[in-house]
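Case 257 in the screening queue. Each case pairs one protein sequence with one candidate compound; here the compound is nicotinamide-adenine-dinucleotide. For every case the pipeline is the same: read the inputs, emit a complex structure as tokens, and attach any notable structural observations.

Predict complex for case 257.
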Amino acid sequence: MNVALVTGAAGGLGAAVAARLAEDHAVLLTDVNAERIAGAAAKLAAGGAKVAHAVCDVSRRDSVQAAFAVAEEQLGEVTALANVAGVGKFHPFTELTEEMWDRTYAVNTRGTFLTCQELLRRRAGRPGAIVNIASIGARLGLEMLADYGSSKAAVIELTHTVARIGAPSGVRANAVMPGLIWTDMWRTTAEWLLANGLAPAGATPEQVFAGMADQMIPMKRPQTPADIAETVAFLLSEKAANITGQTIAVDGGTVMT
Ligand SMILES: NC(=O)c1ccc[n+]([C@@H]2O[C@H](COP(=O)([O-])OP(=O)(O)OC[C@H]3O[C@@H](n4cnc5c(N)ncnc54)[C@H](O)[C@@H]3O)[C@@H](O)[C@H]2O)c1
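Case 257 output:
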């Protein structure tokens, strides 16, 4: 059985990716949140999936290496990697601090670099597959997301480099750009918009999110974690054996690539 390592697997999207991958892989669920990652893994194990978990802060090399070691000990050598961990908050550009900028890049961009590098080193000339979660924010020049959008654009270009390095040995790397998914990340964003008078007063965070989806998405429907998980599973599977270095938007037509 192939072994997949999922980062950010305690989050809204990461948990769905881990659940979908557990249908055809053994899965190591990892996240910086110790309590939630144990719970997410226990839930999948209770359903009969072959899973293990590890606390992993993707911004730290020692933590990433330790997670790969846990996977190898408990499940076998990692052949597939889904980089889902990420942080993103709205900030007016003129109020963005160096600390905010660096934190976003540490998780989204350095984290993706460290995990991809670890997989390439460990595969050492043997095949494997990687999916990095980017965002439509990488392509829209959104004024409140200078750090987040550019960190995700960097993830896309990093994916191209990893794809080129891995190609001769059959390590494929692709990026997925989700549109708008209702998770903790969007709840925090909707709450921030309301608190700052940037959303209709009296609306609930859910209504703010629905309004944004209606405004931004040509198909007028938000994306679900399962929509994204299915694309990740496809790209990590043998069905995608000839696809590498690509960025697939799952966003109801928001960014047409
Ligand atoms: N929700 C959306 O609309 C949306 C859209 C486009 C892209 N994305 C991307 O999808 C991914 C998942 O986001 P989500 O919506 O599930 O948000 P979420 O906040 O529910 O999940 C993010 C997860 O990442 C984990 N995390 C944060 N810092 C970490 C670190 N240093 N090391 C390891 N894990 C860490 C968090 O603990 C959390 O479990 C992110 O990369 C996000 O940028 C989300």
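Case 257 observations:
- The two ends are 34 Å apart (CA to CA).
- Helices lie at 12-21, 34-46, 61-74, 98-123, 146-166, 184-195, 205-216, 225-236.
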